[in-house]
Amino acid sequence: MNKRYKDLIHQTFDFPQTEFRLENDRLNFHDINLNELVQTYGAPLKFTYLPKISENINRAKQWFKEAFKKYNYTGDYQYCYCTKSSHFKHVLEEALKNEIHIETSSAFDINIVEHLKSEGKISDLDYVICNGFKRSQYITNIARLINNGHRNCIPVIDNYEELHLLSEAINENFNIGIRIASEEEPKSEFYTSRLGIGYKDILPFYKNQVRNNKKVQLKMLHFFISTGIEDSAYYWSEFFKCLNVYVALKKECSELNCLNIGGGFPIKNSLDFNCDYQYLVNEIVGKIQQVCIEANVDVPHLFTEFGSFTVGESGGAIYEVLYQKQQNDREKWNMINSSFITTLPDTWAINKRFIMLPINRWQDDYEEVLLGGLTCDSDDYYNSEKHKHPVYLPRFSPEKPLYIGFFNTGAYQESIGGYSGLQHCLIPSPKHILIDMDDNGNIRSQMFKDEQTNEDFLNILGYDSNQNKVIELNTKYIKHQ
Fold it and tell me: Quick one: which of 90, 172, 215, 339 has the most CB atoms within 10 Å?
């Protein structure tokens, strides 16, 4: 009986795959020699493979191009990147190489947009779609961007107050979108999304507050559901509700000509992942075309907002197995030299699955294990419930180092984990490596940020006496009678 880890993978999955292959018993990811990466930089580490960002953007553009051709769709397609998935400059600069647009969700996003504009990465012709609940600073920043000439900035109205606040702050005429508050999936704890305006309330809102506002033109209807785009009865039911709202609005508002189908594509979370993206895009475009023809209205220009799909599959994390603890007769704990809670927080918070594979020792025998992080929290682990399959790894040996990789981790993990900030049990953020490809196809890497040090933590915690300034307040005490 074959007991090698290599045999297990070949018997269980279709392997090698486009991004994964073996070379001399070691795992390559997009032709990156991961063992060499570890030997060069050490573990734990995180990496971002920048070319994958451009690849996924252009895959999606091609799917919509094919669907538009199939249905003779007369609208335009605009690809937007959701900055909240990863705000890093290297991510935005790679994405913006591909003639895309930006979707923002908070005030500081606008500062990033302005910085990128100052460097010539974004122009006034690029769309900036401003989503999210808008507090005063967000309103101020949006208004500044538009007042300074960015006419393709479209704030998407999330609640009734925002239109008034924006109208006061913006000097000239401006365009807006309206976000639909979709109904949540049946298993949700609540019925309707907290974001946006309800289906039945959108048309009255337009008639009462938008139509007679001479500064405002409604250009976009925004549709988003939390599950993302998927081939399910729930998704298509909500999608048709959205199309019905679009048709009703379009008949009242001739300026409305954009439909934003927010909510991203799924990304690969297992070696047996399968998604027919072209089919999904064809269904979306075909259904829009059908509904608009039947209602005798023009088809809208389509916007998508892909965050995880843009950047998720570009990221990875590599750890070393430090030690194995046999806690009872059947549970073996492989302890990694970092923490899942701090470096891959979605595995802890929402039981998200990532592809997990060893970097080396594929010729060795394997065993079923549990993976434990370094914090003292009982939730700092990764097991079969989170991995979809039981966790098998090459058999632990103190004499033979074992490195394991988690892949397609590029979206949200740094921001949710508090990148370079305080970490649970003061586990340091690992070093972060950027990997790119030169014009000749050669892979190159560089250090983006080193592992956190004790000085970093001490400064954050206030132990650096130089950073604390004492301000005396002239306090008057009132004597009680």
Answer: 339
